Amino acid sequence: MSELEAVRKEIEEIDREILSLIDKRVNLAEKVLESKRINGTSINDRKQNEVVINRALNTATELNLDVGSIKEIFEILIRMSIERQNELSGKGNLP
């Protein structure tokens, strides 16, 4: 195996880990939804979304990552969570 192939294999493993963590994060939507129902909080909690984005941007800055790209990634993650919560509550975008 060449060095390039070895690096690509490592990237593939990291990508699988990232996807596994995204799956884990999205699946927490059920617990989040239950808590929101108990607390009377809206599914789209803009204040919490801002907290999550700011936390991600602070960490991205510490890690010297492109904050613009990290913001986009976390906006997508938040949207995925909101969509999952909507599905679980029967308000999903089903055809």
Task: Name its key features.
single chain, 95 residues, mainly alpha, 79% helix
SSE arrangement:
Elements: H1 3-27, H2 29-39, H3 46-62, H4 67-88
Helix pairs in contact: 1-4, 2-4, 3-4
Give a written overview of the molecule.
With 95 residues, the chain is mainly α. The chain has helices at residues 3-27, 29-39, 46-62, 67-88. α1 crosses α4 (67-88). The N and C termini lie far apart (47 Å). The mean pLDDT is 94.
Task: Explain briefly what this protein structure is.
The chain has 95 residues and is mainly α.
- Largest sheet report: none
Write down the overall geometry: globular
Question: Helical percent range?
Answer: over 70%
Rg, Å, rounded: 17 Å
- Sketch the topology as an H/E string, one letter per element: HHHH
Stretches where pLDDT is under 50 for at least 5 consecutive residues are none
**Distance N terminus to C terminus?**
47 Å
Number of helices: 4
Average of per-residue pLDDT values: 94
Q: How many E strands?
A: 0
Class inferred from helices and paired strands = mainly alpha
Q: Tell me the fraction of residues in β-strands, as a range.
A: under 5%
